[in-house]
Fold these 4 entries.
Entry 1:
Amino acid sequence: MTDNERFFTAYNFLKGKGHIRTYADLAEVLGIDKAELNDLKNEKQKVSIDNLRSFIKTYPEISLNWLVLEEGSIEIKKNNIPSFNVKTELLILQKEKIEELEKEIIELKIHPKNRDSI
């Protein structure tokens, strides 16, 4: 199977799961027009790294190993997809704590005699 064939197999896989509806949707994800997408489909143009990057960022459940090397399964199971939400939540909590501590430092500088009460 060629790189382009695997790419469109992944598209059809996602379409079957209801994650994407049309070629126009795919073209939008890739940031290209439908004519360029048609060139990819007809193998007049090869799938590029930028195409793969955009595709995987939007659909992380597709295995990059399968897409590029045809190794393993087409789909990464949900429990193996990194959770960026957990990291984002942690960063937000850390930011809030830093802001709280910065306010406390300012307060201590303004009113150094009140150190024991804080």
Note: The CA atoms of residues 85 and 91 lie 10 Å apart.
Entry 2:
Amino acid sequence: MTNELQLDRYDAAGIDAIYDQMVRLYAETHEDLVGNTFYTTERFEAFFVKQRAHDGFELVAARLHGRLVGVAFGFTEIPREQYALCEIMVTPDYQRKGIAKRLHDELLRHRPEHRADLYVRKDNAPAQAAYKKWGWTKIGDVQPTPEAPNFDELILPLPITER
């Protein structure tokens, strides 16, 4: 199935072409968190506006038979040093089929920074396991904003190698 997957790369200017689909994908992938005010689509959209304004913003979208099934995006956090991986999301009916790994690798493959970092929910066992398998290492706990939950902060040396 991942052979049929179409991956497309977008910069901040080009993302408007799939923006509405991406917001729907966010809502679909976060249904288990309905009622948690930190994970509303409105909050996602507000954060996304800020994230896409950063230098080095890139998004990779995955389509299967024309349908948007996943995205991964991030931005340069520290020039030439650190890339912030903000989000990897895959629609629930296509999770655990290798799509997240393809998105991850495509997004990070040619990054000029020396490392990437991300925050992952402490209770997200599937994501925690995937990141560990892909070579990420926990470096600490972080609460990025006062209203945010505590996350694990992970780093990955770049460039990525096959894992």
Note: The domain at 2-157 is CATH 3.40.630.30 (Aminopeptidase).
Entry 3:
Amino acid sequence: MRINSRLHLIPFALILALASCAQNDGGNLVRTIEEFDEAVTSLQAGDKVTLANGTWTDVELKFKADGLPDNPIQLRAEEPGKVIITGQSNLSISGSHIVVSGLVFKDGFTPTSEVISFRTSKEELANNSRVTNSVIDNFSNPERHDSDTWVAIYGKNNQFDHNSLTGKGNRGVTLAVKMTTEASRENSHVIEHNYFGPRQTLGSNGGETLRIGTSHYSREYSNTIVRNNYFDRTSGELEIISSKSCGNKISNNVFFESQGTLTMRHGHYTLVENNYFLGNRVPNTGGIRIINENQTVRNNYLSGLTGHRFRAALVIMNGVPNGPINRYDPVIDSLMNNNIVVDSDHIQLCAGSDAERSAPPSGSSMHNNIFMSKTNLNPFTVYDDVSGISFE
């Protein structure tokens, strides 16, 4: 079954429709970076700073404010989609109850390591804040192997929704949840209703579309929710989503012709459910890769995936017994149940088995899954002892 390729245009069309709605009340309308810097010095709950329509070139927007839950402080475009931020520019926010909306970054790149940052310094973070209805489009450093992050979420209880991130061409994660200090752990961020547009293969690590944590903090809980997003040919590297922390929930997302996998690389207690992986027989398209303890993969639909080994439709890895924090923890007490895999070429069990990754899965199950294929009637490859996986 081939999914209509026009389907991938729908999320972006919705974003454009949102961008066509003009703001009704002007708030504090600013036309220059000097006016902006002056406006942000004395903000109070309920204030609105509005960037005038037009092109803003070589600006570093620093927005520090503290609103209230029912009366946030807003930074917004005069008309969504008509404030174009170009050149060497970026935006950083800190404080609480801030809403940023309607901005477009294109034709440039950040002069720092982040385009949109939920902090203004290492100590000043954003909490209970939101970035919505905004676009980063091909805003890439021309030096392909110079690394930056398009969106870096720090703090706690932040939301990134109804945005479009497309065309990242240089090294670095498109969107990263940062957990470098205690103030950014157990963060409960929500990343939802976003369009992640095409990303070409980088050819090395550092091309993830979404990363939650790092190996150094992978025993910590992030509790980030990733739901209802559209990943359109996000093929920067093997790991489309790299979950590197505990307690994350990844649900109701669509992965369209993406040449990589949703990878539970580090951390435990990840829930992956109700996602759609639509490969349409494009080479190297993958599904879900399972590593670590107490992972749950259920009710996902995977179709037309051709990837092999670590890019297969379903991959259950072997692990390193008593290994360091940055290696592969064994799969223990994990569930892969009630998934549907259609017309996909490879299911890999105990993948990566070698002298180091010598610990096969244990205490785990694959129950009530459906596998159907016209292209490979025997998709399972077993690399080690699978007695630690129960099959029903």
Note: The chain has one domain: 25-391.
Entry 4:
Amino acid sequence: GTVAKGARRAKSPFRGKLDLFHLAEFSFRRSRRSDLHTLCEVVLRETFPQLRTDVDLLDSLARATKLLNRATEEQTPLRAEFELMLELVRRLDGGGAGEFWLSVFEVKFLASQGQVPDWAKARLDAGTRAVAAKMASADWADLAKLRPSQPQLRRLAGFLDPFIRHHVGPTKPLAKRAG
């Protein structure tokens, strides 16, 4: 972890720069005695204001973050996974549907980890399998044009939740998905 000493002071150089899902470049000083390092400098690159007002979007990001943390090793630079997460944050902040983009993230993340479901053998109807296969193969811009039905998204989520639980470990399900 990293600690930002004095960040809550009124004249702190970190004021307004540290928040959930802000994109920033930073430097820190490694601790010789613990895993708690000291933040030295922050340069804010991008904020995502829509995320501050929509708890459902934050819930989607929390689930994606938990999956990412569970499946990857701490303090390991993973550029591809970072880019996937950043794209998810941008899509959700741009007004995207949380359930849809979360499913896209999960499918693409599983593929990046070598955990690609065999969509042909998945117990899903042909339309939902086609949606999942498209999510796996298409880029994010093309996927913005994809319009799966709510039942397809529910069926896909119902497939992905136990698949992720089995291959990665438990992640807290979204309130919308729990039932």
Note: The chain is about 45% helix and 10% strand.
